[in-house]
Write a structure and sequence with these properties.
The protein is α+β, with helices and mostly antiparallel strands and about 140 residues long. It is about 35% helix and about 10% strand. The protein contains 5 helices and 3 strands, in the order βαβαβααα.
Length: about 140
Amino acid sequence: MKLVKAFNNINVNHIPALARPADASDRTALPISGDDAEAKAGATTLIRLLGFDTVDAGGLAEIWHFEPESASFAVPYFADPARAKASWDEAREAVRPGRPLDDFTPYMDAGAPLPAHRMRTLLAETPRALGADQSR
């Protein structure tokens, strides 16, 4: 089986909002990981057709670079990243005691393009942490 991980680090609402034609100067980049070069090439072609550039984040052992709570996960695609992060922190604190999120509305905006060079920087700056340690 050939597997490529992609599209997990962008909010579903930002996918149609940030897709751009191939020649656009403000294309957004998505990280991809996979162990099979042919599979990654196929995923890259598909993602480019859908309106995004890709950044190769390495093999499947490297997917932690764009997992939840990493520097490249969701927040950089928001037009107001600080507000998005604050909203996520609020949600995390609300559920910590086991309360439902009945009154919580997550922050959403139209998004902002994230170029490949910025994605590469975010991936490189992400420290490896165990999932249980990330939310502390």
